[in-house]
Amino acid sequence: MTRVRVVLDGTPLTLTSGGLPRYTAELARALATECETDEILLASDQPFPLPPDSPLNLRQLPGPRSWAERRWWSWGLPRRLKQARADVFHGTNFAAPFWPVRPSVVTVLDLSPWLDPAWHQHAGSVRRRTPWLLRMGLARCVVTLTEAVRRQVIERFRLPAERVRAVWLAASPRFRPSPPPVRSRPYFLFVGTLEPRKNLPMLVEAWRPLREQADLVLIGRRRADGPDFASEPGLHLAGEVPDAELPAWYSGALALVYPSLYEGFGLPVLEAMQCGAAVITSRDPAIVEVAGGAAVCLDARDGRAWSAAMQSCAAADACWRVRRELSRRRAALFSWARTARETRQVYVDAISGANA
Question: Do the strands 235-239 and 256-258 form a parallel or antiparallel pair, or are they unpaired?
Answer without folding.
Answer: unpaired
